[in-house]
Structure formats: structure tokens, C-alpha cells
Amino acid sequence: MEFDPSRLKYDANGLIPAIAQEAEAGEVLMMAWMNAEAVSRTLETGRVTYWSRSRQAFWIKGETSGHVQDLVEMRIDCDSDCLLLLIRQTGPACHTNRRSCFYRAVREGVEIEIMAPMAASE
Amino acid sequence: MEFDPSRLKYDANGLIPAIAQEAEAGEVLMMAWMNAEAVSRTLETGRVTYWSRSRQAFWIKGETSGHVQDLVEMRIDCDSDCLLLLIRQTGPACHTNRRSCFYRAVREGVEIEIMAPMAASE
């Protein structure tokens, strides 16, 4: 069946959550949001494009930083209300310069950092 | 710093998205929602507990099916508005009896199934 982005289930703001996972290593790097047009653009260009809720604008991931996400495969969940993006991440995914946005963990009731920012050369 | 679920950023409905990832294999299994109390219960019991938006009730994953999720570690993203749950999944995570809810992929513009339901014994 031909994939139609308009058949996905979007929230009241017209958005669907998209989880970015490193295709090879399997690391979950971040979660952001897409509207139907961002889904289409991501598939068409192979360059992951989110919708920035804060800026209310398309957000081609890495467009300014160079930390782009190349799409390997888009997957859809059972309820069609969440996307999983298998990607190849250049550099850090997180704006804090860490590889993943999920760099804090709860261990024995305490919140700790488990990941350092990447060096500039990485 | 002691972890305080009330410091997470919840949406207008008081919910935060939580991604469940198999701790060993790294497979992303599903995404569901938690409120602050569900976050607390999950940490206290070690049994992943979501908030069901359709039933408007706590949803101890696998309580009726036996397909429970045991928490290995809870991680928090940079913006404190998304959780990553490293878990051990018993049986299928998806209500369709598939291991993962993300069992459809878009390949060359076509939506295909890439994962079959699990056998009863699995």
C-alpha cells in the first residue's frame, strides 16, 4: 500500500512524535515532532526534518550545526500515532553537544549525568 | 540531585511521552504516556506503569496479558520533556502480539509489514 502521510494520526496541533534511533548501534538519540509536511519532506529528501514547536517552523536537523540525520528507514507504530526513524547521525544529536539527548539517568532515586559532551573533532 | 518527577515538563494534559527500549537488544518497542504519578509508580515498583489516555486510568503494562515491562533504568532528555525507559520486555510489547509496535516500514514509498505476530509460546 502506498504510504500516505495524511493517514497518520496527528495530535490537536497536527503533530506526531518521532523517535530518532541510530540505525547501526541502536542508540535512541532524541524525540521531536513532525507535521504531515515534515514527514513528506523527510521521505523525499532523506534528510530528517522536524517541526519546531518553539519556532513554529520546519527544522531540518543539523542545517546550521552540520549535525544532520540521514534517514535509513521510517517505521510506523500500531496506532499510527508515533514514528520511529532509523537514522545515521553526524556528530551529536543533542544541542548540549552530547551524542544523545537522553544523557541523564535516575539511579537509586538520584538524577545523574551519564554522558559527557562530545569533543569538537568527534 | 534527588530525582523529583514533578520537575519534568508535562504537556497540557499533564503527560510526558515515554519510549520503551529493550535494555539488552536495544530494540525500540513502543511509546506511551505517563503522568507524574505514573513516573513515581514505575520507579517505586520497577514495573512500567503508563497513563492510558483512552481509558483515563493507570495502565500497568502487562497486568492482564502478562506481557510486563521491568524497568532497568529511566533516562531523561535535555529538555526534561521526554523519557527513555530501558526495560526487559516479557513477550510481545504490542497489542497485536508483535514484539514491537513499530512493525511497519516505509520502503520506496510503500508501507509494508516487517514483523509477524509472535507465537503463543514465545
From TrEMBL, chains A, B:
Sites where the protein binds Mg(2+) = 77, 79, 81
Q: Which organism is it from?
A: Roseovarius tolerans
* A GO BP entry: L-histidine biosynthetic process
Identify which cofactors the protein needs according to its UniProt entry.
Answer: Zn(2+); Mg(2+)
For this UniProt entry, the molecular function terms from Gene Ontology, in alphabetical order, are: magnesium ion binding; phosphoribosyl-AMP cyclohydrolase activity; phosphoribosyl-ATP diphosphatase activity; zinc ion binding
EC number(s): the record gives 3.5.4.19
Q: Where in the cell is it found?
A: Cytoplasm
List, for all copies, the residue spans of the domain called Phosphoribosyl-AMP cyclohydrolase.
30-103
Annotated Gene Ontology cellular components are: cytoplasm
Spell out the InterPro entries in the cross-references.
Answer: PRA-CH, PRib_AMP_CycHydrolase_dom, PRib_AMP_CycHydrolase_sf
User: What's in the keyword line of the UniProt record?
Assistant: Amino-acid biosynthesis, Cytoplasm, Histidine biosynthesis, Hydrolase, Magnesium, Metal-binding, Zinc
The residues that the entry says bind Zn(2+) are 78, 94, 101
| Subunit text | Homodimer.
Instruction: Quote the cofactor binding remark.
Output: Binds 1 zinc ion per subunit. Binds 1 Mg(2+) ion per subunit.
The encoding gene is hisI
The record's function comment reads:
Catalyzes the hydrolysis of the adenine ring of phosphoribosyl-AMP.
Please give the pathway this protein is involved in.
Answer: Amino-acid biosynthesis; L-histidine biosynthesis; L-histidine from 5-phospho-alpha-D-ribose 1-diphosphate: step 3/9; Amino-acid biosynthesis; L-histidine biosynthesis; L-histidine from 5-phospho-alpha-D-ribose 1-diphosphate: step 2/9
Can you state which reaction this protein catalyses?
A: 1-(5-phospho-beta-D-ribosyl)-5'-AMP + H2O = 1-(5-phospho-beta-D-ribosyl)-5-[(5-phospho-beta-D-ribosylamino)methylideneamino]imidazole-4-carboxamide; 1-(5-phospho-beta-D-ribosyl)-ATP + H2O = 1-(5-phospho-beta-D-ribosyl)-5'-AMP + diphosphate + H(+)
From the Swiss-Prot or TrEMBL record, give the protein name.
Answer: Phosphoribosyl-AMP cyclohydrolase
Recorded family membership: In the N-terminal section; belongs to the PRA-CH family.
